[in-house]
Amino acid sequence: MDARSPRGAAKSGFAVPQVPKIALYLVGLIPAAWLFYHGINDNLGADPMRYLEQSLGLWALRFLVATLAVTPLRQILNVNLLRYRRALGLLCFYYAVLHLTTYLVLDQGLDFAAIWADIVKRPYITIGMATFIILIPLAATSNNAAIRRLGGQVWAKIHRLVYVAAIGAVLHFLLVVKSWPPEPLVYTAIVLALLGYRLIRSLYRKIAPQPRSPRRAA
Ligand code: HEM
């Protein structure tokens, strides 16, 4: 979930205009502000709570996908957005928190017995909760102090959980929809492509002979 992958700084890549990270946070939070503004003004259609809940979930998934796209974009197209990856990951988490809060407060009215029954009975709620729990350590360690404290290798291992979260998020989306509209299938295909790319690349790196470093060769 973080831009400061210890291996990340190595390649500079295509010169993307440098935008302050705070600008990305501000732009990223515009959909939430828009939704709450229209929600307060009773402008979110016939079922405003459902619209709010679904939209916030969708934005969480979009930012998760954007976070996962940073590495392939750099490796395939040489577009380097690494410095924005932490912000994208945290935006995913913020939207997931808002999505969960909408569910707990507006959908379920903080009725914890009903919430527990939902978690136990509805697989999409179970998977949504599990996905959210996975996002917590990722968000909590998306800072420089955590990278220093944990060390690069442990930090990188923890952050591999983002792949599990991505699978959980699309599975959750697929189970929410009762029929088969294209949107969840498109997100599932994108997530599978982004994870498949990483898998193929890591398998290839394992079997392909590594070039010798000049020092060793000497
Ligand atoms: C924290 C636990 C979660 C709960 C309790 C939860 C609950 C829900 C609920 C009740 C809905 C609406 C179902 C309906 O329309 O009837 C929903 C939809 C959705 N959620 Fe979650 N969710 C959780 C976590 C997540 C996470 C972590 C993500 C993504 C990272 C996510 C993404 C989505 C998406 C994409 C939708 C469908 C939006 C649409 O229909 O357009 N959810 N979720």
Structure in words:
With about 220 residues, the protein is mainly α. It has one domain. The chain has eleven helices and no strands. The radius of gyration is 19 Å and the shape is globular. The model is unreliable at about 5-10 (pLDDT under 50). Heterodimer of a catalytic subunit (MsrP) and a heme-binding subunit (MsrQ). Belongs to the MsrQ family.
Shape: globular
The DSSP helix count reads 11
Give me the strand/helix succession.
Answer: HHHHHHHHHHH
Give the fraction of residues assigned to helices.
over 70%
The number of distinct structural domains comes to 1
Radius of gyration: 19 Å
Tell me the span between the first and last alpha carbons: 39 Å
Beta-strand content bin: under 5%
Task: Enumerate the distinct ligands.
Answer: protoporphyrin IX containing FE
- β-strand number: 0
Sheet bearing the most strands, described?
Answer: none
Mean pLDDT: 92
Helix/strand class = mainly alpha
Low-confidence stretches: 3-11
Transmembrane segments: 21-37, 57-76, 88-106, 122-140, 161-180, 186-204
Protein name: Protein-methionine-sulfoxide reductase heme-binding subunit MsrQ
Subcellular location: Cell membrane; Membrane
Keywords: Cell membrane, Electron transport, Flavoprotein, FMN, Heme, Iron, Membrane, Metal-binding, Transmembrane, Transmembrane helix, Transport
